[in-house]
Specification:
Radius of gyration: 23 Å
Largest sheet: 6 strands, mixed
Structural class: alpha/beta
Distance between the termini: 45 Å
Strand content: 25-35%
Number of domains: 2
Number of strands: 14
CATH class of the largest domain: Alpha Beta
Order of helices and strands: EEEHEEHEHHHEHEHEEHHHEHEEHE
Helix content: 25-40%
CATH topology of the largest domain: Rossmann fold
CATH architecture of the largest domain: 3-Layer(aba) Sandwich
Shape: elongated
Strand order of the largest sheet: 6-7-8-3-9-10
CATH superfamily of the largest domain: P-loop containing nucleotide triphosphate hydrolases
C-alpha cells in the first residue's frame, strides 16, 4: 500500500527547472533512497515532501490526500505524521539534549509527565541515555545526529525524511547511523525516504531507489534489480563507484581479440561455478581480473570483471549461456 505518491512534480526557480515531472511511489515499510549528484534536485525534492518547498506543478499524495493543497491546520496534522532529519543536525544549541528532543512535544502541548516518559524512551532508543543534560556543542557529529533522529521521532511519525543525514559524518559513524535508521524502520515500522549522493548509503540500507539526474528520475526500482542490471549511464556511474571502478590500466592490457566484460550474478546464481562451466563447455578462455560480492537488503549481487578470448562463435555461445543462467552481461569498451 502506497503511503506517499509523488505525481509529476516540477519545480522551477526564476525559470530554471530544479525538478522535471518527477513521479515515484513509496509503500509502507520502505526505505526508499533517492540518489543523485550535487545539483540533481535531491534537496528540492525532499523539501517538497516536507512541505518546506511548494512545487510549481504536480501532486504529493499522502494516504490519498494531496498535501500540496493543504491549508494551515491540515499541514500541522501532516507534519505530526512526518519527521525530518537534516544534514547539519539543526539542533538548538541553547537547549540540552533532552530539551531538544522535547521541543516538538512542547509544540504539541503534551503534558509534562507524558513528555518526560517519551524523552526517556527516545534517548534510550538512540543510545544517548547518559547525554540528556549535555548540550549540542559538547557532542560529536554522530551523537548530534542521534539527537536529531530522536527529535524527529518525538511525535511518533509514520514517515521519516532524511536530507543527506550521513554526509557530514565519518565512515564508521555513518554505518552506525544507518544501522539506527534500519532499527527505526524494522522495530517501529516507520517508512523512510532518504536522499544521498552516495550509492554506498543506498546499498547499505534501502530496498528501493530512484536515480535523479538534472531534475529527472532516470531510473528507479528495487535496489537488487538496479545493482544487477543498471540501464542509464548515470546509474552505471553510481554502481561502478560503489562497486570499485575499473582501473584504467585494464584497458591497455586487453587484446583486440578479447572482450572485457562485467558479469553480475544475482541471488542463488552468485554461488554457482558458472565460469568453470563455461570454460568446460565452450572453447573460450576466461581471465578473472577482479571480483566482489555486494550484500544488499534483499539480495546478494556478485560481480566479476573478466577478459574473454576465443573464436567469435565460441564467445557468442558463451554469452548466450550466461544469459540463460540469468547472469547480466555488460561489455566494457575503452
Amino acid at each position: 500500500m502506497a503511503v506517499l505518491q509523488v505525481k509529476s512534480i516540477s519545480k522551477s526557480y526564476k525559470g530554471h527547472p530544479a525538478l522535471r515531472s518527477v513521479s515515484l511511489s513509496v509503500e509502507k515499510g520502505d526505505i526508499f533512497g533517492i540518489v543523485g549528484l550535487s545539483g540533481a534536485g535531491k534537496s528540492t525534492l525532499i523539501r517538497t515532501l516536507a512541505t518546506l518547498v511548494r512545487p510549481t506543478s504536480g501532486e504529493v499524495v499522502f494516504h490519498g490526500e494531496n498535501i500540496v493543497a493543504f491549508r494551515s491546520e491540515q499541514l500541522r496534522q501532516y507534519r505530526k505524521k512526518m519527521g525530518m532529519i537534516f544534514q547539519h543536525f539543526n539542533l538548538l544549541n541553547s537547549r540540552s539534549v533532552g530539551a531538544n528532543v522535547a521541543y516538538p512535544l512542547e509544540i504539541a502541548n503534551m503534558s509534562k509527565a507524558e513528555m518526560e516518559k517519551r524523552v526517556v524512551e527516545l534517548l534510550g532508543l538512540v543510545g544517548l541515555e547518559d547525554k540528556r543534560e549535555a548540550f549540542p556543542l559538547a557532542l560529536s557529529g554522530g551523537q548530534k545526529q542521534r539527537v536529531g533522529i530522536a527529535r524527529a521521532l518525538a511525535t511518533s511519525p509514520e514517515l521519516l525524511l532524511c536530507d543527506e543525514a550521513t554526509s557530514a559524518l565519518d565512515p564508521k559513524t555513518t554505518k552506525e547511523i544507518l544501522a539506527l535508521l534500519k532499527k527505526v524502520n524494522q522495530e517501529l515500522g516507520v517508512t523512510i525516504v532518504l536522499i544521498s549522493h552516495e550509492m554506498e548509503v543506498i546499498k547499505e540500507i534501502c530496498n528501493k531507489v530512484a536515480v535523479l539526474d538534472k531534475g529527472e528520475i532516470v531510473e528507479q526500482g528495487l535496489v537488487s534489480e538496479i545493482f544487477a542490471e543498471p540501464k542509464h549511464p548515470m546509474t552505471k556511474h553510481f554502481i561502478r563507484n560503489v562497486s570499485h571502478e575499473i582501473p584504467t590500466e585494464f584497458y591497455s592490457r586487453i587484446s583486440p581479440k578479447c572482450k572485457l566484460l562485467i558479469l553480475r550474478f544475482k541471488g542463488d546464481t552468485a554461488g554457482e561455478a558458472i565460469i568453470t562451466q563455461v570454460i568446460k563447455q565452450f572453447d573460450v578462455e576466461i581471465n578473472i581480473l577482479r571480483g566482489w560480492i555486494d550484500q544488499l537488503q534483499t539480495a546478494i549481487i556478485g560481480t566479476l570483471i573478466v577478459e574473454v578470448s576465443g573464436g567469435e562463435k565460441a564467445i557468442s555461445e558463451a554469452l548466450h549461456y550466461f544469459e540463460e543462467k540469468k547472469v547480466k552481461v555488460e561489455e566494457v569498451k575503452p
